[in-house]
Specification:
HDIG_dom; five-stranded parallel beta sheet; Hypothetical protein af1432; nucleotide binding; Rossmann fold; transferase; nucleotide-binding; transferase activity; two-stranded antiparallel sheet; alpha/beta
């Protein structure tokens, strides 16, 4: 079962049989858990129990197959990050796995990419893995309604709620730490705000942008959408086809390109990039001060990288659209070789492991372009 097309045709039993043989399942079998929270034993035992509970959800048979697969693969991969993060707390003497959902999300992206899972579906599963532990702790949030609203822009709150039920039921606990009433609160609050099935209906894109930037306190406030310009921020690996996309879809825009600046300054990609970044920021400021639409073209593969640029653009009241381009890996490697400034394949693979695909948490508009 080497492709997503095969996964879509497989039965649930065939999928779990495939998963049993995957290299990421072995470490999960060897990873113990705190007996108070997981009396059933190791991580893989819990994973199998959650997978079974997904199938037993009251509404499971009513879901489209795509949603069933999202839940099943979230079950398989939600705790995949535990082997790499599990430690014994020296003070409490309890086993903990801090940040395991972040590691698990990256692993899920890699597993699903290798299977050829469609980009949008893959990232939905990745986000379900990343945030699977949020529903039980809703009341610990300062503004619970903002929590469900934000996550509705990244995933389906309905699927997150259903998975949380399966995750809670798929364990044996000595301590009642996840009462289902808390999970129902996630459902009820999402329904109350109209974001249980679909994303929250913001008044406009700028309201969503400001909420994620923690500068919108009133959900009913309608900020003016009077942007000085629009910045198209490209994201993707070297060789992904960002230049080609710009030529096809934004050919009228001037482009601030880190590759172009490196070429002008005769600075290699492996050298110190301080001068390159400084020059790029100044070029961006020139466009921003003039209120001129432009494109910013760089790899921009992590949220932290992108935020630094978005902060600059937002300071000048620009509208920000992000375009993430990801063809198959074979295409990326081939197109990289065809570049005059080809990057070593080892670097490409290292960057691949660091990718954080853009989400609506970051910009006014986000497009994921899965190029064949």
């Amino acid at each position: 079962m080497r492709s997503w097309a095969n996964i879509e045709k497989a039965s649930n039993a065939e999928i779990i049989a495939w998963a049993e043989e995957q290299p990421w399942a072995g470490p999960m079998r060897l990873c113990g858990q705190d007996a108070g929270w997981h009396a059933e034993g190791d991580v893989w035992t819990h994973t199998l129990m959650v997978y079974e509970q997904v199938e037993q959800l009251e509404v499971y048979c009513e879901l489209p197959r795509a949603d069933q697969l999202k839940l099943l693969f979230t079950a398989l991969l939600h705790d995949a990050g535990k082997p790499a993060t599990t430690v014994l707390d020296p003070e409490t003497r309890r086993t903990r796995s801090p940040r395991h959902s972040i590691i698990g999300a990256a692993m899920a992206r890699e597993v699903l990419r290798e299977l050829g899972c469609p980009l949008a579906m893959r990232e939905h599963i990745v986000n379900l893995v990343r945030y699977h532990g949020r529903p039980p702790f809703l009341l610990e949030q300062k503004e619970p309604e903002h929590e469900v609203i934000r996550l509705s822009c990244l995933l389906s709150n309905k699927l997150l709620y259903l998975f949380a039920l399966a995750d809670t039921r798929g364990r044996k606990t000595a301590e009642v730490t996840r009462p289902e009433d808390r999970l129902h609160l996630w459902r009820d609050l999402s329904m109350e705000h109209g974001c249980f099935v679909d994303a929250y209906p913001f008044i406009n894109a700028h309201a969503r942008f400001l909420l994620f930037r923690r500068t919108l306190s009133n959900l009913h406030y309608a900020p003016h959408e009077q942007y000085r310009c629009t910045v198209t921020l490209m994201s993707g690996l070297p060789g992904a086809g960002k230049d080609t996309w710009l030529k096809s879809h934004r050919s009228e825009l001037p482009v601030v390109s880190l590759d172009g600046i490196r070429e002008d300054l005769k600075i290699d990609a492996t050298d110190n990039q301080g001068q390159v970044i400084q020059a790029a920021r100044e070029q961006c400021r020139e466009h921003l001060r003039a209120g001129r639409d432009f494109a910013f073209n760089a790899t921009n593969i992590t949220a932290q990288m992108r935020q630094r640029w978005v902060d600059l653009f937002a300071d000048y009241e620009a509208r920000v659209e992000m375009i993430y381009v990801e063809p198959p890996m074979a295409t990326i490697l081939r197109q990289n070789k065809e570049r005059t400034d080809a990057i070593p394949e080892s670097v490409i693979h290292r960057l691949l492991s660091k990718i954080e695909v853009p989400t609506l948490a970051e910009a006014h508009q986000v497009s994921l372009v899965g190029v064949e």
